[in-house]
Design a protein that fits this description.
The chain is built from nine helices and 25 strands. It is of the alpha/beta class. It starts with 23 loop residues before the first strand and ends with a strand.
Length: 501
């Protein structure tokens, strides 16, 4: 008996079962015949995990069944002619759409019954497997057949890199979720490894920098099934190379910012001005020079997008000075028609040292509402003067979370961010679902993936001086997007810059 385990994600735009909810997104299941074609007229059932709530859709002539459910809902999905239960999650933003394909043989249920194990046989497998080491280290890429192969299912994992070439020498760990048994192997020159996995468990595929990259089931069965899994992955060597380059870039940027801060402090000392007074004078000089308006990224994006009841969350650290000045000028020229705007400025922790900046508790976040242009200028100068520089990464997510908590009712949430500063608290993104329109300052040929991630996960958008990237909200695993001449691909739930060799 042979089974092919296969999953894919694409964009779908269909309507079927609907569940009334403020935030609603959808997933589409496609039932594909392993021998070709699709399964029509099958009942597909989605049960919300941890509850007894079930919803049913009949697959159409293309094998499709679409469920519209609350955002961030995890469902256990089955089909009437399929023997497995698959876990599927709706996107975390309104209108999000994903797709998963189930590929299986037409006689899957009959074979499942024919080869099913009884309770005694399952207990026998469990007893044998309990004696295994917690971690089995495989020499090379192919695991030798065990002495009792009837308790195992061979699984071949094939991995390709960004160029769709075999990813050789990649260390792969496959861990049983129920029993905790791990099998560690290295891919061969063809990017493949074959391991014998104990039956009756769900397995996660893990890499050094990515845990739970992919999960699949190996059922209790008397047959000699084989699991074939194909994955795309950046690769540990490439990740390490990119991390080194990023560390070097950040070190150079932090050195530049420190020198810039020192020059500013010296200029303020010579002028006998406090830091706040110096920022006020800089802003006043900028406005005097650009009386009729600026033509930078902040002005262009705000002018060409018809956002209303804005809540603007803005990085006001030293490197952002040209852009925050532009924001202040834009507000001065637009104040008469923008009186319902709210602002949150963040300076990454006031005077805290880098060592004292804890995720979610960094601080340096200030809210302003109902200010005229002069009042906003003073407020911005005050917040900017409280920042002391330090590390390059910023507390963008903490600022977004606090902004939504403090603000009055608003419609469009806009973040003005430094493209060259990573988001140090990106881990907080999983707690945030309100769509974010990200205006990227300083973006040229590269976009920092953290900001693509924020826009994608929240169902928002990304904006550069030339482009408004709104389709990012509907992207799915494996898809690519081109921004400013560079391409980015979603792999393992993250945006990866595609660099062709």
């Amino acid at each position: 008996m042979r089974r092919l385990i296969c999953a894919a994600c694409f964009i779908c735009v269909l309507n079927a079962f609907s569940f009334a909810q403020d935030c609603e997104s959808s997933f589409k299941i496609i039932l594909k015949n392993f021998e070709g074609g699709f399964y029509k007229g099958q009942t597909v059932t989605a049960t919300i995990k941890g509850t007894t709530k079930k919803y049913e859709v009949i697959s159409n002539e293309k094998g499709e069944a679409v469920f519209n459910l609350p955002c961030n809902t995890t469902c256990l999905v089955t089909a009437s002619n399929y023997t497995r239960t698959r876990e599927v999650q709706t996107p975390g933003f309104k209108g999000g759409q994903t797709m998963t394909a189930f590929t299986y043989e037409p006689d899957a249920i009959a074979k499942e019954k024919e080869f099913a194990m009884n309770d005694s046989e399952k207990a026998g497998v469990d007893k044998v497997i309990s004696s295994l080491k917690d971690t089995t280290y495989i020499k090379g890429s192919d695991m030798p057949a065990p002495a009792n192969p009837e308790n195992f299912t061979p699984a071949t994992i094939s991995i390709v890199d960004l160029d769709a070439k075999p990813l050789s020498g990649e260390v792969v760990s496959i861990t049983g979720i129920k029993r905790g048994k791990t099998f560690k192997a290295t891919t061969n020159s063809a990017g493949k490894t074959t391991v014998y996995l104990p039956k009756g468990d769900n397995y996660s595929i893990n890499f050094k920098f990515h845990k739970n990259y992919y999960t699949f089931e190996v059922a209790y069965s008397q047959g000699t099934g084989h699991a074939d899994i194909s994955l795309g992955y950046l690769g540990t060597k490439e990740i390490l190379r990119r991390k080194k380059l990023e560390a070097e870039r950040l070190a150079a940027e932090e050195k530049r910012l420190a020198e810039e801060k020192k020059r500013m402090e010296e200029a303020a000392r010579i002028a006998k001005l406090s830091a706040e007074e110096y920022h006020k004078r800089e802003l006043a000089d900028y406005k005097k020079k650009h009386k009729t308006g600026a033509d930078g990224v902040v002005s262009r994006v705000l002018n060409r997008n018809k956002w209303t009841k804005k809540l603007i969350v803005c990085d006001i650290t030293g490197s952002m000075s040209p852009y925050t000045n532009e924001l202040a000028l834009w507000y001065t020229l637009r104040f008469a028609v923008e009186k319902d705007m709210q602002f949150v400025f963040f300076n990454d922790g006031d005077n805290k040292s880098t060592a004292d900046k804890k995720i979610g508790e960094t601080g340096g976040i200030y809210y302003a509402d109902g200010m005229d242009a002069d009042g906003l200028d003073k407020f911005m100068s005050m917040v900017a003067s409280k920042g002391s520089g330090g590390d390059c990464p910023e507390n963008n997510m903490e600022a977004l979370i606090q902004a939504v908590k403090q603000a009055k009712p608003h419609k469009d949430l806009i973040m003005i961010a430094d493209n060259y500063a990573p988001v140090k608290d990106i881990s907080l993104l999983k707690k945030f679902t309100k769509p974010v329109h990200v205006i990227l300052c300083g973006a040229t040929s590269d976009i920092h993936p953290d900001y693509l991630q924020i826009a994608w996960k929240t169902g928002g958008s990304v904006h550069t001086i030339e482009e408004d990237i709104t389709k990012i909200a509907t992207m799915a695993e494996g898809q690519e997007i081109s921004i400013g001449g560079a391409r980015y691909k979603i792999m393992g739930g993250e945006f990866i810059k595609v660099i062709k060799s």
